[in-house]
Every structure is written in structure tokens, then in C-alpha cells.
Amino acid sequence: MSLQDIKTRIANAETAAGRPQGSVKLIAVSKVQPNERVEAVLQQGHRCFGENRVQEAAGKWPALKERYSGIDLHLIGPLQTNKARQAMELCNAIHSVDRPKLAKTLARLTQEIGACPDLFIQVNTGEEEQKAGVLPSGADSFIAECRDLELPVLGLMCIPPVDEEPSLHFALLAKIADRNGLEGLSMGMSGDFETAVALGATHVRVGSAIFGERVKSQG
Ligand SMILES: *Cc1c(COP(=O)(O)O)cnc(C)c1O
Q: Which atom of ligand 1 is nearest to the CA of 77?
């Protein structure tokens, strides 16, 4: 696969779903990938990337941002409150808002910094114990809590269980977003992004299908 192949497949999925071209943003998930692969994608003009660890992102993106303008960096992995400031200063969007303590920290830092990245609330649609995210039953109240804090919540994010039909999870996420008046849907990875586009994804997070297999597996 290549960046262009993935872009073509997204465009075809948009058309098949009767959605306008360009309605889905491709986040190229560059975590753990060697720098030369990331730079190859940058040199093809792509600017939107995803990382799942603040520390790794902080180690590699400031230098790349100096060399390539217009980088749009998305944090897609769990965020500890003690790394929230760093994440807010480094990233344009955070997809893993999942608990009141983090929401309150982001709200306080927004006052201090004067800006906040676009936020997605992660929903644990599969109710998996080891996975981050609010449970579907708690999503409405947590969304309301984030809105009370005046956080810029763009939408919802999910990572379906590996062994289940992803479309059920994407549909559930879309339903929760719809009843809360949220437009952003961060869902779909290398194996299922076309399904996600069919069910309304606005942001797909695609790593290995663009860059090749990750050398060591992570998150
Ligand atoms: C790694 C990761 C992805 C990308 O996974 P691929 O299967 O390589 O496309 C997407 N979302 C999250 C949250 C991830 O951690």
C-alpha cells in the first residue's frame, strides 16, 4: 500500500457512501515508524499525522515542524494529566479525552495557554476492561460535563475490539454523536477504514497500511 492508494480508497468509499469528496480526513499514524518512512510521506505533500504517545511525538515532531510547514498533528493515544500541557502545545487535536480529571485539567490549561486543540471524547464501545474511554452508558453525561467546561469537543473516537465486527461499534459511536449533536467521528484504522467511512467517519487513523508494519507493536 501507499499513501496514494489509501487516498484513492477513501475517495471511493466516500463516493460509494454518497458523501462529498474530501469529507474524510486521513490521519497518517506514524508512531514507531522509522523517520525515513515518515519523511517519504511528508515529501508526498501529506501533512496530517497521528501519534499515540506524547513523549514520542515530542521527540520527533518539533524538528520536522521546522522543516515542513502546515503540520497537523493528532494525539490518538491515552493522555496522562501530567503530560496534558505538552500535548496541548504540540498537537492540533487530541482524540483520547476519557475522564473528568483530564477534562478539568484541559479546561484549566486552556485558560492558562489561551487555546485548546480540537478534542474528541474516546468511547469504549466494546466495554473492554483494558481499554480507555468512557462507557457508552456514561457518554452523554461526560459530553455534557466537557461542554460545561467550555471545551472544544469536535466529536467522538473509538477503537473497536479486535475480534468483533467493527461496523457495530462504528454505528454505536455515530448514534451517540448524533444524539449529542456532535459532527466529528474518529473511527477506522488500516483494516476497516472503508467500513468507517460508510458509517460516517470524519477522521480515519491509518498507520500500517500507509507505512508498512510497525517494527515493534504498540498500543
Ligand atoms: C496505532 C493506532 C492506529 C493505526 O493502526 P493501524 O492498524 O496501523 O492502521 C489507529 N488508532 C490508534 C488509536 C492507534 O493506536
A: 13
Q: Which residue has the higher pLDDT, 219 or 211?
A: 211
Separation CA 86–CA 148 (nearest Å):
24
Q: Whose CA is nearest to atom 7 of ligand 1?
A: 190
Asked if pLDDT for residue 219 goes beyond 50, the answer is no
pLDDT digit string, tens, across residues 116-160: 999 999 999 999 999 999 999 999 999 999 999 999 999 999 999
Report the alpha-carbon distance of residue 59 to residue 32 in Å, rounded. 11
Instruction: Tell me if 164 sits within 8 A of 192, measured CB to CB.
Output: no
Q: What is the DSSP letter of 120?
A: E
Out of 6, 27, 49, 52, mutate this one to test ligand 1's pocket (max ligand atoms within 8 Å of CB): namely: 52
Task: State how far the Cα of 90 lies from the Cα of 61, in Å rounded to an integer.
Answer: 8
Q: What is the pLDDT of residue 163?
A: 94
Q: Please report, as a single letter, which amino acid is at residue 191.
A: G
- Going 16 to 205 to 21 to 36, the CA torsion angle's sign is negative
Q: Just give the CATH number of 3-210.
A: 3.20.20.10
Q: In this structure, what C-alpha cell is assigned to residue 123?
A: 468511547
